[in-house]
Amino acid sequence: MIGTIPIRYNSFLLDFAITPILFLLVSLILYKLKILNPKTILLNSLIGLIAVFFLMYLLDGNPSIIFIPNFICYGISIVLSYFINNSKSIIKKGLLLFVYFIFLVIYIKVLFFYIANYQNAGTFSGIINSKSKLDLKAIDVNGNQLEFNNNKIFVLDFWFAGCGACLNEFPEFEKLYLLNKKNPLLEFASIGIPIKKQGDLEKLFIEKMEEKKYTFPVYTSVNKIDSILEITSYPTIIICKKDSLIFKGSLEFAKKYLSKNNLISK
Question: Which CATH superfamily is domain 127-260 in?
Answer without folding.
Answer: Glutaredoxin (3.40.30.10)
